[in-house]
Amino acid sequence: MERKIGQESTTEQKEALRVMQIIAEYREMLPYIRKSDDGSYHKNFFKHYTEGFVCDEFDLVRAKENEKDYDALSKKGEKIQIKEVTHSAPTIKMPIGFDYLVTVKLSKKDFSVDEIGVYPQDIVNEHMSDTNKTFRITKKLKEAYVTKYNHAKPEIQD
Predict the structure, then answer these.
(1) Residue ranges of the chain with per-residue pLDDT less than 50
(2) Does the pTM of the predicted model rise above 0.85?
(3) CATH number attached to the domain at 11-148
(4) Are 77 and 110 in contact, with CB atoms under 8 Å apart?
(5) Chain-centroid distance, C-alpha 96
(6) Sign of the torsion formed by the C-alpha atoms of 33, 37, 43 and 44
(7) What are the tens digits of pLDDT across the range 81-120?
(8) Taking the CB of the first residue and of the last residue of the chain, which one, N or C, has fewer CB atoms within 10 A?
(9) In degrees rounded to 5, what are phi and psi of residue 57?
């Protein structure tokens, strides 16, 4: 495989770069985006957006960024793992170090929150794939735990 280094960029590459530069300019205006230790903004803004959104939605305290097992804490001290899902199988690190998994599906049209799923740890454990450490969201699970987002808050249950 040969790289095209030094050759003229394609029209698609130029357009993609232009759009990415616009996104980078506006990224700092997005309220949930974290900064790196050096003060620069992270590239992973969909992750930060969904984490911040869920923390506001459920009145959670966002964990420190270097926390490995969870992304937020409830007022009761429950550990919450937040995953933005574009597919039905978010990857989960083992052993599970959270009490709830919250999945967020963004709209493909405008990146608004489309669905929020709240899964207790026992349900995640029960439906984990041993081979690739993914939590498969089946139709039955979706019906039981996912709420179409319309500003009605799904409950984190005791």
Answers:
(1) 152, 158
(2) no
(3) 3.40.210
(4) no
(5) 17
(6) negative
(7) 998 887 666 777 777 889 999 999 888 777 788 888 899 9
(8) N
(9) -65, -40
Asked if residue 30 lies in contact with residue 45, where contact means CB atoms within 8 angstroms, the answer is yes
Q: Which two tokens stand for residue 47?
A: 């992750």
Q: For tokens 């205006």, what's the residue?
A: 29
Q: What is the DSSP letter of 134?
A: B
User: At 62, which helix (H) or strand (E)?
Assistant: strand 61-62
Rounded distance, CA 88 to CA 66, Å? 26
Paired tokens of 89: 């199988």
Strand order in the sheet with 72-73: 61-62, 72-73, 79-84, 100-106, 113-120, 146-148
pLDDT at 13: 76
**Lookup: tokens for 54:** 């869920």
- Cis ω for the linkage preceding 95 (within 30 of 0): yes
DSSP 77-127: --EEEEEE-SSS--B-PSSP--SEEEEEEE-TTT--EEEEEEEEHHHHHHT
Name, in order, each residue with C-beta under 8 angstroms of 77's C-beta and a sequence gap of 6 or more: none
